[in-house]
Amino acid sequence: MNQKNKKCRLKQRQSRNLLIVSLMKETGWERERVVDALEELETFNLVKFPKKGGMLLKTGEVR
């Protein structure tokens, strides 16, 4: 793995971890529960964490 790819993956992990910590504070849930909920959102492509960092959140109209 080259240096550029390592930096990208690091930013991805940092973004994910930041969201996990934030949700733990907001909800009072344990880390394991937040991670499980986040993985479920990722399974349905509602949340994505690009390799270059940040977060993509799918929004739309409910019918």
Structural key phrases:
single chain; 63 residues; mainly alpha; two-stranded antiparallel sheet; 2 strands; globular
Secondary-structure-based class equals: mainly alpha
Distance between the termini: 44 Å
| Strand ordering within the main sheet | 1-2
Shape: globular
User: Which percent range describes the beta-strand content?
Assistant: 5-15%
Percentage of residues assigned to helices: 55-70%
Number of strands: 2
- For the residues shown, what is the average pLDDT? 90
Uncertain runs are: none
Largest sheet entry? 2 strands, antiparallel
Helical run tally: 2
Rg computed from alpha carbons, rounded to a whole number of angstroms? 13 Å
Order of SSEs: HHEE
Overview of the structural elements:
There is one protein chain. The longest helix is centred in the first third of the chain and has 25 residues, at 3-27. The chain has helices spanning 3-27, 31-43; strands at residues 47-48, 56-57. The protein has 63 residues and is mainly α. Strands 1-2 form a two-stranded antiparallel ribbon. The protein is built from 2 helices and 2 strands, in the order ααββ. It is globular and about 40 Å long. It is 60% helix and 6% strand.
